Structure formats: structure tokens, C-alpha cells
# Entry
Amino acid sequence: MGIYLLGAFKMINLIVADDHDVIREALCEMLRSTGKYNIAGQANDGEKLLNLLDTLEPDLVIMDVSMPKLDGIAALRKLKEEGAPCQPPILVLSACEEHKSVKAALSAGAKGYIPKNASFEELEFAITSILEGKTYLSPSVTASLMSESASQNEVDNPLSVLTKRELEILKYLADGYKNRTISKLLHISIRTVDTHRSNILKKLKLHTNAELAKLAMAHGLISV
# Structure
């Protein structure tokens, strides 16, 4: 995959696909302004995205799910089925956080999923994580998945006792994020993070972040 060089820095080549022109342009401008990202191409539907991938080799694609002609899920499936020469990792950035949409995107090959109301800091975390070979799910998205799972089988899922916010913070803690970083990502005070952490440990009858990580992994909240 191509890397655009600027001085001593290696810029990350991105394609951004979203049918809302104002949102897409604003996102591209925010990414450019950091000096770390080069917008190699833009698309407003799934077909144009696939056409771009015939000629461009981005490091990562940021894509909405709801697009005309060919939606995001269909575009992901087509890329996976056809085995296109260029298959960059896909980060879904969508207003839809329903568990069905998230599961469909991951099943079709997406490497990450975050909501459009996520902070720009989280978007950058997601990009970095995916480029390091990880799968990134926003804590709010994961919380939705876990809440769905918990409602189906509360007896066997100890995480069902946690609130959505506690599930978000649990995921960050299990992923190794420090309290200060979590506070910035969620726009809450460090003291609030500390309080949530204490409540999580108490509810789950655990004592350390390592124990939290082990439990989170066992129940699919994070992966290795």
C-alpha cells in the first residue's frame, strides 16, 4: 500500500466514502489538518468506492454504511468475494449503531466500526489500531452488542450487571488504556472514570485490570 512522504513523515493514505457531501468534506478537512493523513480519494456511493479501489491503493478506507447504488455492507461483501488486488482495511463510520448492522459489517470484512458521534480522538485511535493489525470497535458499539447478548442470556453473562457506560469503560480498561486517556476519549473527568472503574470491579467481584481484561476477552468484548 502506498505511503505519501512529506519530509521525514510518512502520511497515511485514506479514501473516505460517504454520501453526505458536507460531512465527508468536513471529515476530510479535519484529517488533512493534522498533517498525518493524505486523502487519496473520495466517494459518495459504494460503486464509486469500488471504482477508486481499481486504481488507488490506500492504507485504509473510512466508509459509511448507508450509501446509494451500493451500500457499505454490499461493497464490503463484493470486495471480499471478488478478491480484488487492493483490499485495504475498512473502518466503518456510521450513524447506525444497531447490533445487526455492526455484525453484518464485521462479517463482511470490516476491521473497525465507530459511530459518527465519536470524538476525533477516537477516530484517530481507531485508524492507528487497525493499521497495527487490530480490530477496533467503539466502546459504545461494543456495549450495544454486549447489551443485546446479555438480554438474550443474562444468566450466563456476568457483564449483564453493567450499565452501557460501564461497558464502554470496561472495554477501554481491558484494552489497556489509562484512566487519563479514557477521560479524554469520553469527555469525562478522571475522577468519574475512577468511580466507574471501582463500581465495575465491585459488581464483577474482581480486583485488577488484568482480571477485567481476562473476563472481557472471555465474553468477546475484546480480542487478542
Observations:
- The mean pLDDT is 85.
- The longest strand covers residues 9-17.
- The beta strands are 3-6, 9-17, 37-43, 60-63, 90-94, 112-115, 136-137.
- The CA atoms of residues 25 and 69 lie 20 Å apart.
